[in-house]
Amino acid sequence: MGSFLGHTLSGSLFLLLGFLWSIKHPLRFFSLKSKYAVRVEKYIDYMELLEWGGMIVFCFIGFLLEQFLPEGPHFHLYNKENHKWVLLNIWQHATMHIMFMFAGIAGVLVRCKFQVPLGMDYFLFSLALFIEGLLFYTHTDRLSSLDQYIHYIGIIPIWCGALCSLFEVWLRNNPILEQIRTSMFITQGTWMWQIGFVLYPRWGDPHWDHNDPATRMFMAMSYSWHFVGVTLFLAIMYGIVYWIFRRQKVSLGYTEMEILEFSNENTKTYTFLVDGSNDK
Amino acid sequence: MGSFLGHTLSGSLFLLLGFLWSIKHPLRFFSLKSKYAVRVEKYIDYMELLEWGGMIVFCFIGFLLEQFLPEGPHFHLYNKENHKWVLLNIWQHATMHIMFMFAGIAGVLVRCKFQVPLGMDYFLFSLALFIEGLLFYTHTDRLSSLDQYIHYIGIIPIWCGALCSLFEVWLRNNPILEQIRTSMFITQGTWMWQIGFVLYPRWGDPHWDHNDPATRMFMAMSYSWHFVGVTLFLAIMYGIVYWIFRRQKVSLGYTEMEILEFSNENTKTYTFLVDGSNDK
Amino acid sequence: MGSFLGHTLSGSLFLLLGFLWSIKHPLRFFSLKSKYAVRVEKYIDYMELLEWGGMIVFCFIGFLLEQFLPEGPHFHLYNKENHKWVLLNIWQHATMHIMFMFAGIAGVLVRCKFQVPLGMDYFLFSLALFIEGLLFYTHTDRLSSLDQYIHYIGIIPIWCGALCSLFEVWLRNNPILEQIRTSMFITQGTWMWQIGFVLYPRWGDPHWDHNDPATRMFMAMSYSWHFVGVTLFLAIMYGIVYWIFRRQKVSLGYTEMEILEFSNENTKTYTFLVDGSNDK
Amino acid sequence: MGSFLGHTLSGSLFLLLGFLWSIKHPLRFFSLKSKYAVRVEKYIDYMELLEWGGMIVFCFIGFLLEQFLPEGPHFHLYNKENHKWVLLNIWQHATMHIMFMFAGIAGVLVRCKFQVPLGMDYFLFSLALFIEGLLFYTHTDRLSSLDQYIHYIGIIPIWCGALCSLFEVWLRNNPILEQIRTSMFITQGTWMWQIGFVLYPRWGDPHWDHNDPATRMFMAMSYSWHFVGVTLFLAIMYGIVYWIFRRQKVSLGYTEMEILEFSNENTKTYTFLVDGSNDK
Predict the structure, then answer these.
(1) Shortest CA distance from C89: residue in chain D
(2) Which residue of C has its CA nearest to D242?
(3) What is the per-residue burial (b if ≥16 Cβ within 10 Å, else e) of D112-143?
(4) Domain boundary assignment for chain B
(5) If both were cysteines, with which of C13, C45, C208, C220 could A138 make a disulfide (CB 3.0 to 4.6 Å apart)?
(6) What does each C-alpha distance from A267 to B140, C264, D143 come to in angstroms?
């Protein structure tokens, strides 16, 4: 879907998931110490099923759309008559969707207490992001060097997110990693929108001059604004959740003893990881 | 401010902050064991408010200067008539200033005991440095490949500083990281001066031949002198502070027990970091 | 052996070893807790001798084949008459074989309780992979930029495997590192097959158009399928071994106490590493 | 000294120091457990003074030679008459010498119990290697792309050594890091000899055809032989020292208790590092 709609739709999915995470992560973190710990944990369990399940559904729909839209390849990969590959751009999009679908399936299986090694979900998620970046790199509906440039710098948050998610295979539920992953994910989404607007301009004149080096300079600057905007947004979400719990008059500070227990909990997670099953 | 003054002014700000750090870090470290611990700590608290507060003030002034000097963009970003971006070079400088201003605001809020997650200051500082390097890379007032080269190698200390500062989100007050960050910061400042002199030569003949490969060789060599010079400078500052405390006849050696307590203190910091508040 | 056979043969060796590992690693891991621990451990000891010994044998045969096939260099490196190097492509292949042979020898010596520093085997294995990647990079039987591209992205799993193996010098028997190393190794093998089919097409028309950018896009997509396929394959193997042990009604979960002992065991390994001998 | 002699002389210095290390490191390691511990430690203390002191002397002589040989710059950096830089190649060599001399001075001061922060020696040594690599990169007595290539891959061991040495600022006396640093250092030395032979061929015909891509392939292969050769050499030296101590019938295995003490010793070292003094 190399169109305005294609870029903004997938960008919106990234934004949606990132937005969910920006609430979920502080929520779980702060609820642990409050009297609502058990109740919140239960809601979050449902939320996560929804999140990984939604990933399956949306990515599968995306995959079908890519294949069966009128201009899609309809599962034809190679045209034997004129010896040409059929619509590889769309096939690459479909591949990305499938990768995230696999991650979604692993995520649901892990959460449904099947005998899937814990960490498999984050590993497949990391792999899906890594492959997304790789395909971004070889994508060839490039109009110009500007087009190339904005796709290349778009790879930075994608691969940072992949790296972050890879670390989470070992360090599950680490609050810092979760926040960084979220920020990378949202930046990716907003940048998708930006790419959509630059390549398929709306509203009036096509004012993106691809041959003017100044446009490239503006993109670099705009990129930095995205980064900072997302950081501030996350800080605000974090603050809101904090204040909501704060009003409940619960002490949210962790003592040294508790942080040790927190670490032990992580060790336990690791135990199950190496065991490969999560049946307690 | 792509001029001699612009480069040396911002270089001087980096130098000033780096110089402050080169005193502050050994001072805090050695004072911890002396009888002046409490008093020094108090002074350092003021110093830090001044440091982060000064960052806000100077960066805001810098931002206004970039925008409202006669040759500035006056907040015009895009000229709808001739379809050109307006003075993006200066807009990029203004963006850098704003980034450091954000870091400064976070730094002051953290130190004023607001409910800002500890570590937010170093994270935003790291982001500001990362973005500075990114914009350095796309800056296009390049006269020649020499100009490009000296800007590119200037990115090395900037991104090393960003990495260092990112680690400090987790490892607050680590003496080694502090020294490395300081050295990178000062190198960046002295290199700014060097760039200023090369691009806008003063005093007599313009003796920088941009087409002579030898000039580039000289720049690489000069670059290494900067690095070593700054290292020696930091070692001397460290030594001076050491000798001053030494004369007070206090034992400055840390025992094994104390180093453990030092680590515990770090753990406690981490506790508050994940808590997201610094109200003890 | 720059031929279809050469690529698929060496690819098959990688696949064979990877397949062995994909069984061995989960087997050892799960058996540790079962009543078959001792018996399985003994089988695995034999398996490893076979594995490293096989590496010696196959690599030595490969080395001899490269040198003494009719079209080989027969140990002539430099032709003094026409001042040309003799068949460097084949010499590079022979070099790779020798490197893996060294790793094999170290592996056997370590396992035969000779006074070889433990970790030497993984270090030499890592070095062999690193050198393989390096030689991949300079290999010049390149037909086209496509040829170059598929060799370059083939370096990614090779060097990731090298890095993984380097970590194992310190972290011997770490289950996660073992799985990642295995996945990288198998990907390398399947990719060898892919390269073989692309460069020396079988079965009908030579349908790989090296000048069509679409072919390159397809390779990138195919590459991602390899990665995911191998990951799923490893997950399935892991699952099968798990279910076999599961049926024996043994509890496979590790308690916290046991994970600590597991770590101690690692420390002990490290002890022997720094000692440089493995005579207990 | 861009000549055969220049390359082999500096290569020989690297080899000499690497050779010394290849004996010293296993010697100290194994002696710790034998009854000769104190005596060996004393010899090693002298050896280290010699080693760092020798670095000062040789590098200072090297610096003077570079400057005052008939074809040297005699401290003239810039020729104001023809507006040309004077012999920058030789100035870069001189700079490298000075960097290592600084490291040597720090090394001697640390070992003479002056109030120099422990770790300063390895930090300056790391900086000297980093700068050496940087200057290697811009060196321009390049005859051909082959010349460039062999210098570029020569940077790999240099920067790996720098990284290793940087880690040793924190992890002093770590046996693994010491061995890796030694191997990188010796590889650098042997590669210097190789470069010398390729650029300034001796003995008969100049048989290095810089325009033949095969020569480059041979260099890559030869490079891998250097790496493996050095690894085997280090393993043999390690083995010899081990056998010498082995014959003394001392148990060389470290128990778990001892490894913990070993770690404590490291902690103590760190203590002194952060203290900045080594007066116990």
Answers:
(1) D217
(2) C276
(3) eeeebbbbbbbbbbbbbbbbbbbbbebbeeee
(4) 4-275
(5) C220
(6) 50, 15, 58
* Full-model pTM: 0.76
Helix (H) or strand (E) holding B78: strand B78-79
pLDDT of residue C191: 92
Distance CA B110, CA C83 (A): 71
Residue C136 in contact with partner chain D when CB distance is under 8 A: no
| 8 A C-beta contact, residue A224 and residue A194 | no
What is the β-pairing status of strands A84-85 and A78-79? antiparallel
**Residue B214 at interface with chain D, using a CB cutoff of 8 Å:** yes
Q: How far apart are the first and last CA of chain A?
A: 44
Are B and A close enough to touch, i.e. 3+ CB pairs under 8 angstroms? Answer: yes
Using pLDDT thresholds of 50, 70 and 90, give the confidence band for residue C185: very high
> Which backbone phi and psi does B85 adopt, to 5 degrees?
-75, 150
Paired residues of A78 in beta bridges: A85
Residue in C85, C95, C275 nearest the CB of D253: C275
Show the tokens assigned to A151. 């796709």
Chains linked to C by 3 or more Cβ pairs within 8 Å: A, D
Contact B259 D280 (CB under 8 A): no
pLDDT tier at D187 (50, 70, 90 boundaries)?
very high
Q: What is the pLDDT of residues D113-155, one digit of tens each?
A: 665 666 778 888 998 998 888 888 776 556 677 788 888 888 8
Nearest CB to D254 within list C89, C137, C275: C275
Residues 59-98 of D with CB under 8 A from B: 78, 83-85, 88-89, 91-92, 95
Tell me whether residues C91 and D215 touch, CB distance under 8 A. Answer: no
Q: Which residue of chain D comes nearest to C125, CA vs CA?
A: D228
Task: Tokens for A34, please give them.
Answer: 């409050």
Chain B CB contacts of D88 under 8 Å are: 214, 217-218, 221
Q: Hey, are the CB atoms on B134 and A254 less than 8 Å from each other?
A: no
Task: State the pLDDT confidence band at D33, using cuts at 50, 70 and 90.
Answer: low
> Which residues of chain B from 23 to 52 reach within 8 Å of chain D, CB to CB?
26, 29-30
| Tokens 């710098």 -> residue | A153
Start-to-end C-alpha separation, chain C: 44
pLDDT less than 50: residues of chain A? 252-280
Backbone conformation region of residue D260, classed left if phi is above 0, alpha if psi is from -120 to 50, else beta: alpha
pLDDT, tens digit only, all 280 positions of chain B: 567 777 888 889 899 999 999 998 888 877 776 677 778 888 888 888 889 999 999 989 888 888 887 777 777 777 777 777 777 778 888 888 888 998 998 888 888 766 566 677 888 899 899 888 888 877 755 667 778 888 888 888 999 899 889 888 777 777 778 888 999 999 999 998 888 888 877 765 556 777 777 788 888 888 888 988 998 898 888 888 888 877 765 555 544 444 444 444 444 443 333 333 333 3
Q: Are A162 and A184 in contact (CB under 8 A)?
A: no
- The DSSP-derived string for D166-203 is HHHHHSTT-HHHHHHHHHHHHHHHHHHHHHHHHHS--S
Q: Which amino acid is at A90?
A: I
- Asked if this assembly's ipTM is beyond 0.90, the reply is no
**pLDDT computed for residue C273 by the predictor:** 38
Q: Which of B217, B228, B239 faces D140 most closely, judged by CB atoms?
A: B217
DSSP letters, B203-267, are: SSS----TT-HHHHHHHHHHHHHHHHHHHHHHHHHHHHHHHHHHTTT---PPPHHHHHHHHHHHH
CB–CB of D275 and B253 under 8 A? yes
Cα(D271)–Cα(C199) distance, integer angstroms: 59
